[in-house]
């Protein structure tokens, strides 16, 4: 309902989805399952008298029907409307009265709901999250209002800002079969035409304890937390519907896809999207380091040559998207005024070709490792980030402990791996190239 | 060294104590536990001999450290060189006496750290094992910048490209317009960087900015993280001890003028799917003053998140937008009020009305205790949560230095917040919320202009371009793509639509015309667009009458009756058409859109209409309503002007109930007293 971060729209932010490393060592946590299938993660941190309570549902836009897209994100709005015991428009008020904050976000693969509360409000957080898992109100009045709101959200995020449609355009060009071909915000028509019943069915299928992870981080007592988890969540029945998890495999690409989009912009943009393996695979870590090699920091290869030396680009960005199924690594550049986008594209290609041909230097490799280390140190600094990282690790890998192995996974990548993945994935036949050009008035 | 003691506070949590915790009762929210203690961390502070002040927040939870150097200086008015101050700031990290831009970048990237310079200082962070190296690089950048000419050229080029990339961004357009309209050219907050201002900037401007303002006696360095005060002291002395102090120019600016009345300000974005709407104005509210905390409560009640009045109305009730917010900021020079949203284009004016309504709501009515307590609890919660990050203590300490706040300003924040009353909230709302004296700023399609004019105190929409410069409109400009046919079709739509007009079989009109002191009764009748009759009677005496049956006509004047001649018949045939606009072409007229003109202050489209007889007349159609407002024709060699007013509805069609005819010095107003449609007028009337 709130300032929703559609994960995929974080186009310019470098993503370190999962990470952990702290002065004191690894994150210590406890985890267990309830009989109804709900996975529970408890992580204590008494630094400040605050807690975060979150539920990650293993449902994102890829679980949607191609005729009814935008549902997972739509639920993000609907789940704030009310429950059997919480009247409409009161859900957030309970949190506000307690001095807390709440929000949610949706990606292609999962939806995440959370409350940040003072530590004396643990029971309130449990009640709120269990209420919406047990019996959220999926009803006409809320659906009607939120349809309009979501359509305005789409316009504000994608349609009105310059370059706003880059992500949806890239995805629809990159995928033919896989549900990653649409964005979490979905199709305006699908949202408009969806029936109340469609929403209710979606709720019954996906918003069930056996498809969720409950995480509590912060200043609480374990025994009390366990008691409350039991009090509020144990009675929620296990889902009875079969949960749809697409097994669709996008066909291997054999030919470059190339297109031009005319948009309400003044400067063109060049976008390349390369098909890459799923998050968490060894090659994903190598691809991620390759992205850093190219555009992380002023001395990175593309920034140094294309932005600083040759002044072809105003800005360059290369990074993989953290998708549970095989996803994309994006390379994006805005040419400087008067620069032909084709010259910029050729210069980008030179950089990829260089990584394909030559091993990166020892010094560059050490630099990448230092960068990763620095970023991972901060990635679990707050209870808010930590809760999400733990929940994500469990949701994608069914191993919460993976959140503690992130640095090791990066350090396992070799210089040879980076060259190998460059040759395997960063080749013309495996990519989409889009030119964004100013609309002729 | 001064040591600030720990402050302990009870978080003022407004709890809902409702149920007893025995068997869990789902129907009610569970009770809260005892309120936890909120603890503010420590910081140390020391000052170097050259006057540089250093704040240290020790926190060893993570092996990280950050350095934030902030100059405490007055903003500089850049005027026609807008942008040079920020270019000067960026240039610091683009080369020093010993290192090139790339060498600096390579060193900092290699250790995985971050470094950035700006016009009021620099920031660096990284793993604490590299703290010596990081601070050495930061000092190098701040103390010995070399201002390379090629880096300057590159920055100018990038800034120019950046301006291009932002040109269609509604956010950046709104920002530029806001700056110019709210603060004006004489205030630094009114500076807007454009291609033109960039062209005026020289490298020397940047060098002298640095030489004037980068002095240790106006600098505060905040250090946060895995470092001890002792270590920090040693490092800072080593790298900043030799920085020479000097006098720094001070600047005083006049408070920007208060906004008088409602000013509607529009920046065009063609065919924008949404409009950016903002109600904004400058306010006099300085950081650290007594009003600041009550204002923050009031602001949150008006427009923070879901509990805010704006979100509740514009999103949850009306679904105009994804989000509507307010923000009232305190500032030592001039603060500002903002309330706004990105809304559906077709509700642009309604959105403004609703925003103003909520502003009046908080200004004129007492909010509920529940909303008030909830808001205070949320603000207290924000404060407590922010303390998780050690940089919060540093930013508090920096604010105390920068804005001359009492040393315990943040330590006593929760107490001060707790003391705010609902009456305080209403008092500050009265003082700072004023929808009647505000700028109503829109970034959206220009076609909304006429609709928005109604919101303005003087019925005027001021148009600005994306750089915040006023657009002088060409009074003769014709909107792109508009043709005479479209204007006429719009007119037909405006008076009731083609289908309805074509269904009219007959019409009879009665009216009264004044001619100086005389009063004339006028009657007209039409049938099937073929027959026409009229009479003008004064004091029972017929001045003139015409009866045309489609083939022949009788004309009576001054007691005499004659058969109409050929020439006259041609005229009557044309006159028998009730709505000639339905088929101008078929009737032999050719029309051309020749310009725009104001009629009674309203913008109109001017059509030149040439009849089959070669006689030219001009019709003027309102740009907003589509209605015909004026005709200028020739009659017997004289120019006749007719002004149509007072359009009224008759059976779903619109007719002007008063027509003012001007001929030379004469003005003859005609007022319709009765107008009837489809009453089955007998043919006899026309014979």
From TrEMBL, chain B:
Q: Give the UniProt keywords, A-Z.
A: Signal
Read off the InterPro entries from this record: Metalloenz_LuxS/M16, MPP/UQCRC_Complex, Peptidase_M16_C
- Signal peptide positions are 1-22
Q: Gene3D superfamilies recorded for this chain? A: Lipoprotein localisation LolA/LolB/LppX (2.50.20.10), Metalloenzyme, LuxS/M16 peptidase-like (3.30.830.10)
Q: Name one Pfam family in it.
A: Peptidase_M16_C
Question: Where's the Peptidase M16 C-terminal domain?
Answer: 200-379
Q: Name one GO molecular function term.
A: metal ion binding
* The UniProt record lists the keyword Signal: yes
What name does the UniProt record give this protein? Answer: Insulinase family protein
Q: Which organism is it from?
A: Ancylomarina euxinus
Q: What is the lineage of its organism?
A: Bacteria, Pseudomonadati, Bacteroidota, Bacteroidia, Marinilabiliales
